[in-house]
């Protein structure tokens, strides 16, 4: 791997450290150790270096006292740490060589590491990229989240169905975490609030009759690239305040005796418990308050250890709320400032509104969290009191700005119609509100959050998302990374716009051949993975057409598989038609309670079973569903993809970051003008992508004014009608009713107004035409190679380093920290 000159690496010391770890941890020699034990031994050897730099970083922060961002997120989809840490320590090649000398294969060692089950989708992966960029750019930061025992779930596919099983990523222990019990915090739920007047004449609010849990932090190091900086991801585990209550246990009341253990265990067991029922909603709210309360308490205490005026807290600390999940931080900070530090309301509000900033990640109204008042006030009585007062004062502001306008209050109040609206709280209290792609931000300002934008336009801004090239190119695609470095140098590793130097090679025939050969080798690597895990042979010379992302109806995996069914029909009807072989690759998890999403997974697998086993089409189409899609297999998938499916209904995808990862690895975008696709096409040019479908304005117009009837497409287009009838006529299932819910979602013959909410039939023919353009373009290998190289060359904008620098410059105003050179250590 060609990269920046490595910091001096002591190979012999590293080898001795690995051997000593195997002996001391497991009482074994290297030859006797299992692969998992070798992974642990190697990781502890690397952790030893990381901890030195971690301690040095923290000492430098204590000395320089820089402003710090706390990035609050329900998810951090980190991916494996070992390889990423080696990359960022600039020690990957040295460690690989040292392990080779010990007879150990680093690739096999890396494969022993579980993906930490701390996130699921783009929200969590973005948070992980941001932490990487913050450390690499030298900004003081904490990530704050939950140490989920089992994550969302590990996905297994059985008989074509998604089955959710626990993702027990901690079963062997995780070497890159540190338990920090000295920073444990108590978090209180339930009870009631009493008001007292203390000896100083102050009204003091005290929560009584509550249940509580102990939040215990586990810290993970976030290693910056080549600069010695190590920041912290702090994830909170829940433990009982007492092990068990002897009085209850002695009386035989077992349930009360383990009450606290159960409360603690439930809070951190899984990410996003099913909230289709009341108990699920309650658990989600408990999770959110649990990690926010612990994080806010510790942030304030950390500040006060080296400062004496809590009123200046915002000068050294900012909280970035990653979507609405952490919004309770607003009220919790108010509570701590007023109840623990005796600030007046106005003083506390002044600090809070200069500390909290909010990122909106969705245009989907359903994802803007709302809590029933009854649940919120019962579970968080003091917090509810504070939210109620924030709302009362905010409503007065609305009335002053818009006299006698009840409609404005209805649309903007934080508490209304029996619900606490968390996005409204975040906007009212935050000093910044940002969207995550230019189109998304404009839709927020003109549609979803229009009333707030009109009232406080100065708060709104855009920060287009980005990805870290260090994981998704340097680590995930070493062949291409080496090729890029050979052509433009290695500055792109920390300055991705430098990759634009590849433009001059886009029409060079030798470079095109080299590039396509690298793509082919990556396709061979993925084909081996598919054969091993799916038992399906795929041709690496076929077009690898890939859609990997969280499964939601608006992301339209259903459109993709319906088109595959259409292509299959065409091949069956015209066996001799000109057709370039295609491999359609899917990867996605569906929320456990999301019926249509799970049924779409079953449909994809049912279609795969039919097509993959039909000798009549001679392997011209293969369909693959990759089980348990996650960061570690995503790196291989991005590297191998020819076509990047970004086909969400226009106006629904806030940004997307998978689109950027595909682009960085030389895949061409097949997509709608949605989210960051708009900016990708701007950068690379429309001639190097395949755009189709309704525009966001057309979709919004249909939603606001009606006029869309999917039955017209069904009645007037025999190809669409045939594909839809195959959902219910036994073509892909003996049970003709199995896929009826999907059929109904598209047509709903009882009520056309709610049919095909995501305009699949409206976009079907345009999508099919775009797919024909893909095939025609791929046949021209030189032009395809040119477009692929240009996609890589034009990806510079989409680094998370750029995004973070924009947050720093325009929202957070942090101070860059540079360690003295002598303090940067590696093994």
Structural class: alpha/beta
Question: How does the major sheet shape up?
Answer: 10 strands, mixed
Radius of gyration: 27 Å
* Multimerization state: single chain
Termini separation: 19 Å
DSSP helix fraction: 40-55%
Please report the number of helical segments: 34
The number of distinct β-strands equals 23
Global morphology: globular
Low-confidence stretches: 1-6
How much of the residues is beta strand, in percent?
A: 5-15%
Question: On the 0-100 scale, what is the average pLDDT?
Answer: 94
What does this structure look like?
The protein is of the alpha/beta class and 827 residues long. The longest helix is centred in the first third of the chain and has 30 residues, at 35-64.
Helix and strand layout, with pairings?
Blueprint: H1 11-26, H2 35-64, E1 68-72, H3 82-88, H4 92-101, H5 106-111, H6 122-137, E2 141-146, E3 154-158, E4 161-165, E5 178-179, E6 185-189, E7 192-197, E8 203-208, E9 211-223, E10 230-240, H7 246-250, H8 254-257, H9 259-269, H10 278-306, H11 313-316, E11 317-322, H12 329-340, H13 345-352, E12 356-359, E13 370-372, H14 373-379, H15 381-401, H16 406-412, E14 415-416, E15 419-421, H17 422-429, E16 433-435, H18 438-448, H19 450-455, E17 460-462, H20 469-475, H21 478-488, H22 509-534, E18 543-548, H23 557-573, E19 582-587, H24 595-612, E20 621-625, H25 631-640, E21 643-646, H26 658-664, E22 668-671, H27 677-684, E23 690-691, H28 696-705, H29 710-716, H30 718-726, H31 740-747, H32 760-779, H33 781-793, H34 800-812
Parallel strand pairs: 1-2, 1-11, 2-10, 11-12, 12-16, 16-17, 18-19, 18-21, 19-20, 21-22, 22-23
Antiparallel strand pairs: 3-4, 5-9, 6-9, 7-8, 9-10, 13-15, 14-15
Helix pairs in contact: 1-2, 1-4, 3-20, 6-34, 10-12, 12-13, 12-15, 14-15, 22-25, 22-33, 23-24, 23-30, 29-30
